[in-house]
């Protein structure tokens, strides 16, 4: 995605987050997510190349987004409700995998999955690396997808 697409991506993420993830978070966790996804904060990381975005477009509409921190850590993956279980998340993940496969030193992709998304990530091939944790009111399970053996 390009810089001028980021606002729409964050609006989609916020909308989906409120419906599916926020119910599992404390008020502090929701505030932390809001802070993490603030347009100014994200654009600063995007401009430095620390955060990359991909979008899934269907019939000219943005239906899902994925963002990574330093390519190998998924920090946002959201798909509009009406497109769940239709392959959008898999297509977005495939874009990240293709980007990572060009670098032989990258062995895995990681994510701190919200409780809602753990099963989604399992279906995408991720496995838990640790038990669920709560940091700053945000509940997550560390997970990883192996790309290569050591």
TrEMBL record:
Molecular function GO labels: acyltransferase activity, transferring groups other than amino-acyl groups
Gene3D superfamilies (UniProt xref): 3.40.630.30
Keyword set includes Cytoplasm: no
Keywords: Transferase
Signal peptide feature range: none
Annotated ranges, domain N-acetyltransferase: 4-148
Transmembrane segments: none
InterPro entries listed in its UniProt record: Acyl_CoA_acyltransferase, GNAT_dom, N-acetyltrans/Recomb-assoc
Keyword field contains Transferase: yes
Designated name of the protein: Acetyltransferase (GNAT) family protein
Organism: Mesobacillus foraminis
């Amino acid at each position: 995605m390009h810089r001028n697409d980021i606002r729409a991506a964050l609006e989609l993420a916020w909308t989906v987050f409120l419906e599916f993830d926020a119910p599992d978070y404390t008020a502090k966790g929701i505030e932390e997510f809001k802070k993490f996804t603030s347009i100014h904060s994200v654009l600063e990381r995007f401009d430095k190349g620390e955060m990359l975005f991909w979008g899934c477009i269907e019939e000219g509409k943005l239906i899902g987004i994925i963002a990574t921190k330093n390519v190998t850590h998924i920090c946002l993956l959201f798909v509009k409700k009406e497109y769940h279980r239709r392959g959008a998340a898999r297509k977005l993940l495939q874009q990240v995998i293709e980007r990572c496969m060009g670098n032989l030193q990258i062995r895995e992709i990681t994510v701190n999955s919200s409780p809602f998304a753990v099963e989604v990530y399992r279906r995408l091939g991720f496995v838990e690396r640790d038990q669920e944790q709560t940091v700053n009111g945000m509940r997550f399970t560390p997970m990883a997808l192996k790309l290569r053996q050591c």
